[in-house]
Specification:
The chain has about 140 residues and is of the alpha+beta class. It contains two helices and nine strands. About 5% of the residues have low confidence.
């Protein structure tokens, strides 16, 4: 249940599963609960809770305090591509726009959360950065 919850949270938030921290499952009132957060440490974390029934079947995930780790547009590029670009920035970013350039390649426009810096990252679906343009 713990790894399933981490995977569900990663999918919901558009991040890598290994970046989510989960606690051991707890049983309360016949249901199992798994609590966690993204990122694993630091400030501005997003908390999540997965619920499972008494037979350990997944019921739901509840996400609280989502701080813009991705936007709706970010879902259109593979996570490996998003991860390559956001890791290259090295700070917390907001993905503003994702555009498919041609099959297998996307342009991801990102903005640093705590500054005006914006970058256009051209990346393959496998995470190979092809171009990097500072927009400011």
């Amino acid at each position: 249940m713990v790894s399933h919850c981490a995977e569900a949270a990663a999918t919901e938030l558009g991040v890598m599963m290994n970046d989510a921290l989960t606690l051991p499952a707890e049983r309360t009132s016949g249901k199992y609960h798994v609590y966690g957060q993204y990122p694993a440490s630091g400030q501005n974390v997003t908390l999540f809770e997965c619920q499972y029934d008494g037979n350990r079947n997944f019921l739901s995930i509840n996400v609280k305090g989502h701080h813009g780790h991705q936007t709706e547009a970010a879902g259109s590029a593979p996570r490996s591509a998003q991860r390559a670009c956001t890791d290259m920035m090295g700070v917390e970013v907001r993905i503003e726009k994702v555009s498919q350039l041609r099959p297998g390649f996307h342009e991801i426009i990102m903005k640093e959360v705590n500054s005006k810096r914006r970058v256009a990252c051209t990346v393959s679906d496998k995470g190979s950065i092809e171009d990097w343009v500072e927009m400011n």
